Amino acid sequence: MTFQLIKSSEIKYWCDKFSTRSDVAVDTEFSRVTTYWPRLALIQLSDGVDTVLIDPLEKGRDLSPVDDLLANPDVVKIFHSCRQDLEVLNKVFGRLPVNLFDTQLAYMFLHLADEISLARLLEEYADITLNKSKQNANWMRRPLPRSQLEYAAKDVCYLPNVKDKLESELLAKHRLSWLYEEQHHLYVPETFDPTRDYWQRLAKRGNHKPQQLHYLKGLCDWREKMAIKLDYNRRRVLSDEVILKIAETGELLLETDDLSEDSVRLLASAWDDLQQVPESNWPKRLSRKPMTLKQQEKLELMKLKLVEIANDLGVSEKLIASTSDLKAFVRGEVDIPFLKGWRAQILGQKGILS
């Protein structure tokens, strides 16, 4: 395997060259340990023959040719487990790449697996052993050691060949359209927006009263705004545990977190504002109504049918439907993923929806 860490003057040449290919593998290295937004540290591109690495941290570096390549609808962009890569690219370029092929997702449509690592995928489809010892390396340091650069290059150079094999298998099983349908729904700009319902995750940790839920929501919303403004990891602003303690006790506790004076003042102001919100505007208590015996019986029957269908197809049942989706269905809800598209097609054929 050969690769190049290219200069600024070479970026356009290589992106123009890759734009003439039918597909190109893409990967990124980034850091987000202490920040709200991921910080791009490296871009890897490969057509299976040529592999180049681009350092985005060099001052004055023009990455617009990369943006143009990723936005080219005539070139398939191959990723492996691409959500985090898409998040950082969306942040850098203000838009998502188009015409994607996620090899992890493609694999899931062919095998009884909830997910697969890149190392395992390359072992199965390329007979390549990947050393992942650099997986948690510091990608922000400069210069990057050659061992790290080689590690990064291997993440993309074999993917075009693997993609071809996965695509052939999907076509043979008439599932390629399933993959593209799934990607169309999974990878849309709205899913990369700042979190707006984090409070609901914390609310599930206990049986909170409406006023406590009001505090949870208000504190989580304030923290999200501060984290975005400061570009801090949200827990660096205020931990989940402190938010829960404040919401549950109704007392503003500040001594437990290392907040700046400005942050303390802003939090105190936000807390005062929360006290002024009328009870009619508090969130409703989370519904915990147990299922009826008939609903429980239907749920268990659907679970058994789902396992049978998944085994027949050779895919994970979690890819078809989650337990929460099944529970929502037996409770009579209608906005459920498996009532649409390829899922509805196969479940309808097998009689699971009747």
Describe the structure.
By secondary structure, the chain is an alpha/beta fold. The protein has three domains: 4-192, Nucleotidyltransferase, domain 5, CATH 3.30.420.10; 198-281, DNA polymerase, domain 1; 293-349. The protein is built from 17 helices and six strands. It has a six-stranded mixed sheet with strand order 1-4-3-2-5-6, sandwiched between helices. α3 links the parallel β5 (76-79) and β6. The chain is flat and about 65 Å long.
Summarize the structure in short.
Helix content is 50%, strand content 8%.
For the structure shown, list the relevant keywords.
354 residues, alpha/beta, Nucleotidyltransferase, domain 5, DNA polymerase, domain 1, 3 domains, 6-stranded mixed beta sheet, 17 helices, 50% helix, flat
Mean pLDDT: 93
The fraction of residues assigned to DSSP E strands is: 5-15%
Q: Main sheet, how many strands, which sense, barrel?
A: 6 strands, mixed
Shape: flat
CATH superfamily of the largest domain: Ribonuclease H-like superfamily/Ribonuclease H
Q: Major sheet: order of its strands?
A: 1-4-3-2-5-6
Instruction: Tell me roughly what share of residues is in helical segments.
Output: 40-55%
Output the CATH topology of the largest domain.
Nucleotidyltransferase, domain 5
Order of helices and strands: EHEEEHEHEHHHHHHHHHHHHHH
Over all CA atoms, what is the radius of gyration? 24 Å
